[in-house]
UniProtKB/TrEMBL annotation:
Lineage, top ranks: Bacteria, Pseudomonadati, Pseudomonadota, Alphaproteobacteria, Rhodospirillales
Keywords: Membrane, Transmembrane, Transmembrane helix
InterPro entries from the UniProt entry: DUF2189 (IPR018692)
Protein's name according to its UniProt entry: DUF2189 domain-containing protein
Pfam families documented for this protein: DUF2189
């Protein structure tokens, strides 16, 4: 059903989750675009920093021959993107509340709920480190005996021997990314916005995905597509796409999660 029915996460008072139709992510993107257009220095400036870091990390992996780390480094954007997007969430929240854009306040927004955001950040980091370790193991098992020629990465990945590694690595990475999406789709915006615990926020996120699986699968596909498009453009595309997804994720949270008055808000810095 997509009738807007509210589904409680725990007993009262706790967040409730609203069912949304499958095409709802397009509405979130439109709202995210409006936020990005209203805050270009913060949105595009921070997007440029994130894209530059991603490009540098990938370039180091390629130039130094760390082929085993290439998949987890590129996939790390999917796993860590919710944490990296806190700045975008705060910019959208400030605009929603009629507050002026403030780069310092947006960059330091995580301090409002340091314990909750920090704890969930550790969870995301551990999931990324697990993916790095798993990818290294896969590389050792499947490509450990493959000679790396002078022209490096492209020649190795285009060999028949690399095909099983790419298939298995991609499938495992996609499964881990989907699990990360499920536990985080509204978790960090909720932790930024309200005084709730990490377990409550994660449970709300899981309930949101279960309540609107088609909409959430479309949203996950759009995020994955944006990240993939950004990477095939040598990370240039990530400069506008990361802010767009980050701002839209705030509106996804606001659209899906309903909060009782008993759950107090974390104020934005004026």
């Amino acid at each position: 059903m997509t009738d807007g029915t509210l589904i409680p996460v725990f007993t009262h008072p706790s967040p409730a989750v609203r069912r949304v139709p499958m095409d709802r992510p397009w509405h979130w993107l439109r709202l995210g675009w409006a936020d990005m257009a209203a805050t270009p220095p913060i949105s595009l400036g921070y997007g440029l920093i994130l894209a530059a870091v991603g490009f540098f990390a990938t370039a180091v992996a390629i130039l130094d021959g760390w082929l085993a780390l290439l998949l987890p480094l590129t996939g790390g954007f999917m796993l860590l993107a919710p944490l990296l997007s806190v700045t975008f969430y705060e910019a959208s929240r400030r605009r929603e509340r009629g507050l002026p854009p403030d780069a310092a306040a947006c960059l330091n927004a995580w301090r409002g709920n340091l314990s909750g955001i920090g704890a969930f950040g550790v969870v995301l980091l551990l999931m990324h480190l697990f993916w790095v370790r798993l990818a290294t193991l896969l590389y050792a098992l499947m490509l450990g005996d493959v000679h790396v020629p002078p022209d490096g990465l492209p020649a190795v990945l285009l060999t028949p021997a690399a095909l099983p590694f790419l298939i298995v690595g991609t499938l495992l990475g996609a499964a881990l990314a989907l699990a990360t999406f499920t536990i985080s789709v509204v978790t960090l915006p909720l932790l930024l916005d309200r005084n709730v615990g990490v377990l409550t926020a994660v449970a709300t996120s899981i309930t949101a995905v279960r309540a609107s699986p088609r909409a959430m699968l479309l949203w996950a596909a759009l995020i994955a597509g944006a990240v993939a498009l950004g990477m095939v453009t040598l990370f240039i595309g990530l400069v506008p796409l990361l802010p767009l997804i980050g701002h839209a994720s705030w509106h996804a949270y606001r659209d899906v999660v309903r909060l009782p008055a008993a759950i107090t808000s974390i104020p934005s810095e004026a």
